[in-house]
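Appendix B, Record 12. Input sequence as logged:
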Amino acid sequence: MPDLIVSAANARVKRLRALKDKKHRRAEGLFLAEGLRIGIEALDAGWAPQAVAYAADREDHPLIRRLLRACRGDLLPCTPAVLSTLSGKDNPQAVVAAFPIPSRSLADLRPGARLLAAERLRDPGNLGTLLRTCDGAGASGMILMGDCTDPYSVEAVRASMGAIFTVPVVHASLADVLAWKARHGATLTGAALHPAARDYRAVAYGRPALLLLGNEAEGLPPALLEACDQLVRIPMRGRADSLNVAIAGALLLYETLREEAPAPPAPDTGGPPG
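Logged structural output:
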């Protein structure tokens, strides 16, 4: 077992802590994932950590040992106080792991049945929630356009609940997205408060369906509105004029499932008949 780290000033701990900053994530090519559950989700998706900081007094936990065995780099047994400087102090985790940031382009995305694109998405919690919803709805990827928040920030990774490891994320320009759309015969559907927008429940999304969300405050700019094959809106019955972007994305993603045959019923896992 490596020596116990008792000081937050330890150089290896400081290197991991620096990954909370986007500049250091880019320089190191690594990002942080907090918590044992997310770490195991990563392993199950085929990812290997490059460093693992963990609570030394829980080293014998079988899942922690699995994460440590999979690590391809530094192991950092820490005291709870040191570990709390790497994870949320209000909810300290037993494990904080560093994973490599993948190098992906739009060409790496398979068409699948549905994909989600977002333009100038600024809130990391919304981005992480959308990734989690993409995973749940079986989306084959997420495209970020314009000045979006970093999907590998601690907040976005935490909100994704492990989906950052299962849903490919790429950055792309409008021109590249339109070229990809034409190559794969996708239908681009934009969510917008626009006179031409139809009820989101009344359109055909096609396959592959490429769903486009705009900036939380400003919506889609004119160039993106014009690029869409169709525009949809979500009916609002109260005083608010729009929904949270993560909620809107979830509604659209799951609406595309209505065009598919229903999934077969789950097998009965109850006990034997009486």
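The chain is about 30% helix and 20% strand.
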